Amino acid sequence: MTKDGLEKSKAAFERAKKSIPGGVNSPVRAFGAVGGTPPFIAKGKGARITDVDGNEYIDYVGSWGPLILGHAHPQVVEAIREAAEDGSSFGAPTERETLLAEEVKDAFPSMALVRMVSSGTEAVMSAVRLARAYTGRDKIVKFDGCYHGHGDYLLVQAGSGLATAGVASSPGVPERTARDTISLPFNDADAAADCLKAQGDRVAAVIVEPVAGNMGVVPPEPGFLEALRDLTTTHGAVLIFDEVITGFRIARGGAQERYGVTPDLTTLGKIIGGGLPVGCYGGRGDIMKGIAPVGSVYQAGTLSGNPVTMAAGLATLTELKRDGFYDALETTAASLEAGIVAAAKDADAEITTNRVGSMMTFFARGGTVRNYVDAKASDAERFAKFHAGMLTRGVYLAPSQFEATFVSAAHTEADVAATVAAAAAVFKEIAAAG
Ligand code: PMP
């Protein structure tokens, strides 16, 4: 790519820092893990984004997952315009909310009732409150390296010990709150069985990213999700699949369709809002009927079910129903994976690739990555060099090893070829620098 440098981004970043903590409204955007200046983005179209200096990038972040159709998709833009012209918010029921709920239910048969909220964090917090109310229990089981938004009791990631008491990952989370969260190794069905055997009668919910996306992509091993299903049924705990990333991403019906395991509650976000703020939770009717105004579990939101968001979501989900949509995405993603793996091999660069459909991670290490400990054993410095090299060559990857590379329907084989060529050059450059 012809790079004009990042002078304007640098200035924008300095200015932002004077008004916004770290210059960003969500921490990873600051490029802390990889160093350098984050390009400030001016616009996006299809698979490409352009920064304020005029540099163009092939974008594999896609707003961290929502943009499965790429940027500024014409149908989505039109839907947003139409909805906005009719008024952007009423705080009263609108028909688009029902239409989007029906689309979600159609793709996710396990969701008999769904409630729209404004972020994935809010969806998870609400689902957990509901599970606690439904079971009359307090404890939550999660898995190391899984992220479920920034609610207090989910910002916990215990060490690798079995069923150890939670240790908060963030100051400000009260110790007594963290104590109710148990974090276990991902893909370890035995650890989950031991934990539930010991304290199953106090566990309200087991929550999992059915394909982990927040320690980099880590797929579930055969039997892991099935074991969680059996254990929660046996011990009367609610099984929550956090499909904020995987929903409508790895199949229209998410991980539950792809792996054939049905949770009690599901959380969604990202894609269903078409790039506007959204979250959603839903599941078994008997559990969801606990939510106000039907039941007494309180959860509300001024902008929940926002008409403009609903319109963007509906336009997006409509495109996903086109014949062969996911097959085409799979083909592009598989070809990106194969190209990068071959380029790494060619340069003798050790990488491990995990991919499920259009989400994948290239870990800067060899061997297999099946849990958070494995993911953290990646070479952070080598990843940072890879990231910087790719950025210089016009490829915008997530600025952290512990994130996914997302392929959208807007990526073409030519984009993939350009990306692979860039990767080949970067791998060689890193090898030459020793
Ligand atoms: N759950 C998962 C699996 C996520 O990946 C995220 C965000 N990346 C969240 C919940 C939180 O969603 P939000 O950022 O919309 O609050």
Architecture overview:
It is built from 14 helices and 14 strands. It is of the alpha/beta class and 434 residues long. The radius of gyration is 21 Å and the shape is globular. The two termini are 25 Å apart. The protein has two domains: 7-60 and 323-433, Aspartate Aminotransferase, domain 1 (Alpha-Beta Complex), CATH 3.90.1150.10; 74-320, Aspartate Aminotransferase, domain 2, CATH 3.40.640.10. The strands form three sheets. A seven-stranded mixed β-sheet has the order 4-10-9-8-7-5-6, with helices on both faces. The protein has a four-stranded mixed β-sheet with strand order 1-2-3-13. Bound molecules: 4'-deoxy-4'-aminopyridoxal-5'-phosphate. 4'-deoxy-4'-aminopyridoxal-5'-phosphate (PMP) binds at residues 64, 119-121, 124, 147-149, 209, 213-214, 242, 244-245, 269, 279. The site of 4'-deoxy-4'-aminopyridoxal-5'-phosphate (PMP) has 16 residues, from helix 4.
